[in-house]
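Incident log entry.

Two folding requests arrived from the same account within the same minute. Monitoring flagged them as a possible duplicate submission, but the sequences differ. Recording both here for audit purposes.

Request one:
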Amino acid sequence: MKYIVVLADGMADYPVQELQGRTPLQAASTPTIDYLARFGETGMVKTIPDGMPPGSDTANLAVMGYDPKVYYSGRSPFEAISIGLKLAASDVVFRCNVVTLSADEPYAEKVMLDHSADEISTEEARALIETANKNLRTANMTFYPGVSYRHILVWNNAPFDFVLTPPHDIINKKIHEYLPGGPYQDIFLAMMQKSSTFLKDHPVNKKREERGLKPANSIWLWGEGKKPALSSFSEKYGLKGSVISAVDLIKGIGICAGLDSIDVEGVTGNYHTNYEGKAQAALQALKEGQDFVYIHLEGPDECGHRYEIENKVKAIEEIDKRIIKPIIEGMGALNEDFKIMVLPDHPTPLCLRTHTSEAVPFLIYQSNDSKKETQRVYDEFKAGDSGLYFAEGYLLMDYFLKG
């Protein structure tokens, strides 16, 4: 038996007036998902434990079978590990976004316009982070470039007492209420303020503005954490597996769990990505002896953050057509029995433009299970009709793999 998880980040949503009161998942044309639902099973899962932040870090840990209350040590260490950084136990790691703030006000009065600076390219962002490192690096602090707007700051022998806010939680809000807090707030605020002085006139940003794109005119520090220690996925479940994602966080969680991280050319952290490449990489891994593959798609989440209603619907349709359908067809061609699970990690409601912690729908289909066709529907409201509900999200993986 082969096992496939398709994780559509942030796919779950609330009813949207512009979609005639439907959610993007309900509005999307998803014939393959519809088929799997009719011949599979659906349910609801609470991926975010009560009292924990509704992030992709805690949620994906839970979906992969790890209790976030036990294993979560912060988001950014997973991202650091995914880009090959070696962390000491005394290091504290921070996510460093390059963001777009409004231009004319004093720093504290600026507005967070875009947490991703128009989803800046990795090449452009690398130049900005290298400039930030040159201007802000200290004996104990170093900046490292990642992918697109997602980068890393490592503070050696650091304290661990910070109050930091994710930038995607405060889009279109003045930042003065969300600036760094805690006893070391002045250090981080000074770095962020200084970055705005040398980034606003950086050649990369000047060229972006000439092309009508938002400038990445400040860094934003958040997501602190220490080196994680996950147990081995293969020892836990007796399966060899891989993770496929454009997002350093997901790759890092997989690497920490002992999964292979498969790089696919042309993948991005938005709905314009190499869907076919991800699908074929998954099939190839399973063909070559892997038992399990975890395919992460970031597109629906980014569209939710950016209030892109049509693009969120389109991202879900692309996942159905260009990921799930070819995988189902490919597994049939391989003549392999398989189980596939489709789900989001958390909701990213368009109206809020950030994550929430409600339960999300999941779908499980098994190729050699001769279930009769049903009227079952997969969406945020119908998935729970079966009565199948996991209040502890990390138990869903056990159910999926072991029954």
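Request two (distinct sequence, not a duplicate):
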Amino acid sequence: MKRAVEESLGETPDRSEWMFFTSTPIDIEDYQVLVVLELTRKVFNRHYHLTKNKACGCWSEPSTFPRSLIEATASEFLGACRKELSTPDPGHCYFLTLNVDEILRTAGKNMFGAPILAGNRHNYFAPQFDACSTISTLRYEGAHCAGRIVYVSRNHPSLELDIALKAPVHLEQYEAVRKLLELSSENLALLCDAATIYGLGRISHTYDELREDVFEVRFERQFIWQLLHAGHPLMHVQYGKPQLIIPDFPVKRFNRDLPRIFGGIDTTDIDHLLALARSVASQHHGAMLVISDQAEKEAERLSNQCTRVEPFELTDDAIAHVTSIDGAVLVNPKGVCHAIGVILDGLSDPRCTPARGARFNSAVRFVYQKKGRVAVVKSEDGRVSFLPELMPMIHRSEIEEAMQRLRILSESPEVSDREFFETIGWFNEHKFYLSQRTCDEINHLCREIEGRLTIQKLANEYTPFVPSPHMDESYFFQE
């Protein structure tokens, strides 16, 4: 039934640009109900995916696995939707209570279906994803985790075995595997049959990509690894969270936000600062660039906790040198450097987090304490942050249009639950932009509407809107 529904939807006129995924059916009263997820085919095909999703195993039915992280995530999402339908009074509310991180992690785990089958281990279900994530956290004699593991059967025709281990190392012997990774290189990889590391070798150039039976796990650095086929990334994993790509430096956000922070800055200066920021992001060690419209005065104020220099125009080639000591590099919006090794100050801020290091948290305290400051932070663990994180600008008229929809609903004798929750959903997504006056009106209208809703759970679940202390007029476009 699942396949029939997907095929029927795909044959619908004008639906060739879409892909359809469906849940397995569930009995609800006298009906069998399936949840349908519609995705843009163009976006799906933009990311690398396998062509096969089945392999013959030790059972009569072929083993199936997801072709891409998108497909794996879609399957988990639909499973969560199906579970929601199994609750009493399914569909009583238009909101799904989903654990997004858990859906992604489970999807990531399922991505190892193909590598397990590639290792000729059809009946082996060891936690490959968890094993790789754990190994990525380990250091060896102080060095970050780096290296390669290739999933390939011992009798694969394209396998060139250089070293065979007399006693294979189980994949869950994490420290032993981490030690062996030191032997791997671009030309030599650990060989895995999905259960054990059985040797070191390489895949010859004769490998036919259409076979889709050789996979690689590449450890980039601590906490970061990826799953590939024939050099094509199937999944990146950062800190145990799967994603399609590892985020690069946010160039678009940098170009968008700098004119908002430093009014009147020209494109030449933005390009110069972008080059400096990307150079900081590419360093192999921790580094920080701070841009301040009061850089000279800040250098003087912090003279006891920095090394002041004669002002000079900083270049991206010099970044490696000036960031080789602890502390931030302080420049003005034209990229003129006034101090290096700056130990930043600032009051505690709720945006600080124990999940990040001292460098990131000091940047948060400094940047958010006063306007006209920017920080680019490269942490020791490889993460890159651009602060402050500004919300996008919107048109004030968008809020007024949504308010008008809510006012009309409040004046209607019968209120559509769907229209109400769609309108409140819009306000939830844009709550940062709401003033005290707007919040008060929304809260008042919601209480008026409450008694006319079919869903009578609003009183218990509704959270009143409150204005954000960080919102100001700079977040609105001029109209």
